[in-house]
Amino acid sequence: MYATEIHDYLKTFFKETNCEIVSDEGFQLTVQLTIDMDKRIMNRPFYWKYIEATNSEPNPARLTLITDRTQTQNQFMGEIIHYGSGRLNQIFKATKDLGSFVLMYEQVDNTKNQTTLTPYFCVNYKVSYYCDQTKETIHSLGINLINGVIEDNFHESICDMNLTNEMPEKAFCLQYIIKPSRALERLDLMIQNLITQDDHSWAEEAKNRFEKELEVLNYFYQDREEKPEIYEIEKKGLEERFNPRIKVEIINGGIFYLK
Amino acid sequence: MIIERSSNWREDFIERVNNDGPWDSWTLYKMSYEVEKMNLIPEFTGLQAPKFLTNLQLLPHQIEAAQTVIEKMNGKAILADEVGLGKTIEAGLIMKEYMIRGLVKKALILVPASLQNQWVTELNVRFFIPAISYRRNTPIEQYDVVVMSMDTAKKSPHREKIYEQDYDMIIIDEAHKLKNHKTQIYEFVQSIKKKFCLLLTATPIQNDVFEIFYLVSLLKPGHLGNYETFQESFAATKRSIEGEKYLKELVNQVMVRNRRSDTGIEWTTRKVQTIPIQFTNEEREVYDMLCELKSVSSVFASSFTMVTLLKEMCSSKEATFLTLNKMLQKINAKEEIDYIEQIIEKLMKLEINAKAEKVLEIIEKANDKVIIFTEYRATQSYLQWYLHTKGISSVLFNGKYSKNKRDWMKQLFREQAQVLIATESGGEGINLQFCHHVINYDLPWNPMKLEQRIGRVHRLGQEEDVHIYNLAIENTIEQKILDLLNDKIDVFEKVVGDLDDILEKKA
User: Fold this and answer.
1) Whether residues B329 and B369 fall in one domain
2) Is residue B501 a part of any domain in this protein?
3) What's the CA gap between B141 and B138, in Å, rounded?
């Protein structure tokens, strides 16, 4: 992420979360945080506990974020922010928390006759494979709530559409046949199928690495009738390191009424 | 395989459907997806960490080392780069990578006390890893990344507190401190669970082949067999070994070692010379009398005491006097006391220290900043006094100095004094690239100590050739030390790999 990308990201983020942008020099940004945003990204729970317990006047922080330190005269005037910095990670997390569930409608031309919109339900999944190494994939699955057809890469297909969060006047929204809770189960099942069909040689290889290392360990203690405690500790460490695991997380998801 | 499903997204979502909201911003929704996509780990291999580490100029050999450890060594390795190539950076990079990949959350870093703060700063500033420095009563269960001094960690109650934690990664700096399997620290490290583990040392062998056996056995028990099979297969004695090619190959499966010459960075040359010195007749007389001591009194029967005394005599009369005087208190027989007092008398009369004169000559000829390493505090003071009488300013340095005092001395040396006189323990953790001359006034038994000393000066950032002067007095114990150093270097090179020059090349 380049300096200008970060700058744009922050600007959009704060605008979208109703934090007033006090000044914007293109390489640094001063924002007045709202109380909610202060709690999310400033790491000061004790302050807020205190303010709330004593009923004091809350004073959310005003932040100056330097996005391009090569252009700044005085680094001490603000906080340098860059890809990888803790503050940016907190802002990413806040983005995730505040962008989890949506209900959107495709924009309909008001001058034309009534347009019918079909309901879809989309979940963006992140699938992680872990052993002593890691690999992640994103699956964006969308299901048509009328006929139950599921498609992958759903997010990519809708992200550039003209969507609005209010139902357009001239739109007629079909009532879904498949209930969202049921649809979620179907998508969960689908993601499980996708995982099952995937190539899992990585897990086999991790198991082989584990066995090879266990063999070495056993050799070290082969003459011992009773294995000492450190053998068990060492073995547990090996198991934890190579144990293949799969984790499914949901990034976000929502209901979309599309033409 | 079991699939873990995390997040209570599902319940939250159903609730929002039932209550018809509240719904989130489409812009934030899209941004969130983009962030996930950007941070995705698309392959099992390769490094993700460098793109996050914008405060750090990583060198190619450091990236390669991290990749080797993660992809080929499965996260357990000895990092044995030569001094000054950035082992700390490599370790930080590996740890960061595992953290990004969600494989390491809790990590424990064991270091010598003098490096504790440096590690905490490096991890926080360069790697954005929120590490804390362990102090007495730090509630370690509340912190994910803890930097602790080895001496503290091995003792109660800290040791027990560590056992209660479940660390994903253990990093040990200056791991050659674990060469002896009978020590408390060795047993301690042996009994903590090591899921991912890095041992950092520029000197995996210091004195004998068994050190590498114990070090590797700590990391991966069985990799070099058990003690008996190791000894048998390699016909290992302390300083000789057979089948060294195989051993080297085995060792290299768990060890990354970059040499200065393979880094692609232009390194200045090391010019190492052995400077032979003749005792004055008077000094020789005292030395010979000291040699006789073992037949004069049983107190001197221990070869350790004798060796100490002889080494000290090669250093300064001040150092010799302190030990001799201490020994005197333990003796009762009159003729023995007489003999020692006679030595002391002759010792006190000595006016010339041949070695110190040679030092003066080297300093004058160098006409530049010089570091002198000695093993004895008494010699250290004496040299400062002696140089002062010759109009040469110097500052002292030793490992017991606090961080502030170290920095102050370093600054004084850089800006005012011509000479820095350091004792052995002052060797670790200071970088003095602005100096190009190192005098090893006394020789340690361990070649790696010499390497550590030279490494203070000959490291990244050194712009000029570095001159090393190893002083040895002819026909004394120092000559034997030189031979032994050569043998040890030989073993190291056979098992670990080549070394930069420490001693003058044998003709």
Assistant:
1) no
2) no
3) 9
Q: Do residue B7 and residue A250 have CB atoms under 8 angstroms apart?
A: yes
Inter-CA distances, A186 with A120, A145, A147, B228, Å: 13, 11, 13, 60
**Does B356 lie in the same domain as B332?**
no
The answer to whether B227 touches B213, Cβ cutoff 8 Å, is yes
Q: Do B29 and A200 touch (CB under 8 A)?
A: no
Asked whether residue A196 falls in the same domain as residue A218, the answer is: no
Containing B290, the helix (H) or strand (E) segment is helix B281-296
**Which chain A residues touch B14 with a CB distance below 8 Å?**
180-181, 184
3-state secondary structure of B253: coil
Residues A150, A250, single domain; the answer is yes
- Same domain flag for B362 and B294: no
If asked whether residues A78 and A142 sit together in one domain, one would say no
Which structural domain range is residue B169 located in? 49-262
A246 in the Ramachandran plot: left (φ > 0), alpha (ψ -120 to 50) or beta? Answer: beta
Query: Å from A127 to nearest chain B CA?
Result: 10
Are A57 and A150 members of one domain?
Answer: no
Name the domain boundary from A57, A77, A98. A98
Pairwise CB contact (< 8 Å): A86 & B130: yes
Q: Which residues of A touch B220 (CB under 8 A)?
A: 213, 216-217
Chain A residues in contact with B30 by the CB 8 A cut-off are: 99, 159
B14, B18, B31: best to mutate for the A interface, most A CBs within 10 A: B31
- Total domains, chain B: 3
At position B39, the amino acid (one-letter code) is: N
**Residue to test with chain B: of A134, A141, A163, A224, most B Cβ within 10 A:** A134
| Distance from C-alpha of B326 to C-alpha of B330, rounded to nearest angstrom | 7
Residues A187 and A118 in one domain: yes
The question of ipTM being above 0.85 is answered as yes
Each residue's pLDDT tens digit in chain B (507 positions)? Answer: 778 887 689 999 999 999 988 999 999 999 999 999 998 999 998 998 898 887 788 989 999 999 999 999 999 999 999 877 889 999 999 999 999 988 999 999 999 988 888 899 989 888 988 899 998 888 888 899 999 999 999 988 899 999 999 999 999 999 988 888 889 999 999 888 889 999 999 888 887 888 888 999 889 888 888 888 888 777 667 666 667 777 888 888 899 998 887 777 777 888 999 999 999 999 999 999 998 888 887 777 778 888 999 999 999 999 999 988 888 888 888 888 888 889 999 999 999 999 999 999 999 999 999 999 999 999 999 999 999 999 999 999 887 787 788 888 888 998 999 999 998 655 566 778 889 999 999 999 888 888 888 888 887 778 889 999 999 999 999 999 998 998 888 888 888 877 778 777 655
- Is residue B188 in a domain? yes
